[in-house]
Write a structure and sequence with these properties.
By secondary structure, this protein is α/β, with parallel strands linked by helices. Helices cover 43% and strands 24% of the residues. The protein folds into 2 domains: 163 residues, Rossmann fold (3-Layer(aba) Sandwich); 118 residues, Calcium-transporting ATPase, cytoplasmic domain N (3-Layer(aba) Sandwich), CATH 3.40.1110. The strands form 2 sheets. The protein has a 7-stranded mixed β-sheet with strand order 1-13-12-11-2-9-10, sandwiched between helices. It has a 6-stranded antiparallel β-sheet with strand order 3-8-7-6-5-4. Helix 1 packs antiparallel against helix 13, helix 2 packs across helix 13 and helix 4 crosses helix 5. The radius of gyration is 21 Å and the shape is elongated. The protein binds adenosine-5'-diphosphate (ADP) and magnesium ion. It comes from Streptomyces marianii. Belongs to the cation transport ATPase (P-type) (TC 3.A.3) family. Type IB subfamily.
């Protein structure tokens, strides 16, 4: 393509809500045959809500919400914000947390009101050799089958509650996935979240290939493996935990609604946080570079 065509392409991109870091990006946009989609905050809104609380026998629900809410108040994770806000709505003011530690991809730990508290995925509890009692395990299984994320709460060495959180799939995501497919791209859903939740979201969007329970530092390897299979990989993400994968991808697309780390790592920003703009970007690059009319 001529330099003029590239300039026109990037200018048209800006009109469509796509910021392209340089005209050379269009070539990789054109060639992409696979598109890896982060789940939380990318195909979903990332605005999570606390929808349910299940306590173990003998555990007071108010106590569970106070301790979990207090600890999550110190974290910026979307799940943490849902738990802190939902807990405050239900039980009022939350105590302060001490010795707070954020464990990316796992959860949080700290001390609240003299109790050593853990909030996070089951794997976090497993690392401390804390098992879920049967009634909580069942609540977790049911929540996940319904496409909700189950968060476990433990303190003083025992699992005491399961919290259900969920966000909504963005209204534009299903149509965007359909368009990406029509452009010949294979969509793959990638998430640190549980497999059942990921599959529920995948089936809602018509995405068969789902890679779940991936630790933040391993997302980049998922992209690399796809490249080793000979694919040209586009990746769409929003989080700090997506930055390395966005940089590794042949084409990194950052949600404009996402973190600065993701935007810096991407080649292209979807300003409005609408996945449909990813399809627009690919169409635009193919037109600009003359592969479709
Ligand atoms: P995603 O890839 O969907 O953006 P993350 O890698 O941030 O998700 O987190 C993966 C999983 O780790 C979450 O689904 C949740 O189970 C758990 N987790 C992470 N951070 C927290 C937190 N602050 N509180 C509770 N659970 C958390
Ligand atoms: Mg995300």
């Amino acid at each position: 393509a001529t330099p003029t065509a590239l300039m026109v392409g990037t200018g048209r991109g800006a009109q469509l809500g796509i910021l392209i870091k340089g005209p050379e990006v269009l070539e990789n946009t054109r060639r992409a045959d696979t598109i890896v989609l982060d789940k939380t905050g990318t195909v979903t809104t990332g605005r999570m809500t606390l929808l349910g609380v299940h306590t173990a026998e003998g555990t007071d629900e108010t106590e569970a919400l106070r301790l979990a809410g207090a600890l999550e108040h110190a974290s910026e994770h979307p799940i943490a914000q849902a738990v802190a806000t939902g807990a405050a709505e239900r039980v009022g003011a939350l105590p302060a947390a001490e010795d707070f530690v954020n464990l990316p991809g796992l959860g949080v730990q700290g001390v609240v009101a003299g109790h050593a508290v853990l909030v996070g995925r089951e794997r976090l509890l497993a690392e401390w050799a804390i098992a879920l009692p049967a009634e909580l395990d069942q609540a977790r299984t049911e929540a996940e089958a319904a496409g909700r994320t189950a968060i476990t709460v433990a303190w003083d060495g025992e699992a005491r509650a399961v919290l259900e959180v969920a966000d909504a799939v963005r209204p534009t995501s299903a149509e965007a996935v359909r368009r990406l497919r029509a452009l010949g791209l294979t969509p793959i859903l990638l998430t640190g979240d549980n497999k059942a939740v990921a599959e529920a979201v995948g089936s809602e969007l018509g995405i068969e290939r789902v890679v779940a329970e991936v630790m933040p530092e391993d997302k980049v390897d998922v992209v690399r493996r796809l490249q080793e299979e000979g694919r040209t990989v586009a990746m769409v993400g929003d989080g700090v935990n997506d930055a390395a994968a966005l940089a590794q991808a042949d084409l990194g697309l950052a949600m404009g609604t996402g973190t600065d780390a993701a935007i810096e790592a991407g080649d292209l920003t979807l300003v409005r946080g609408d996945l449909g703009a990813a399809a627009d970007a690919i169409r635009l690059s193919r037109r600009t570079l003359g592969t479709i009319k």
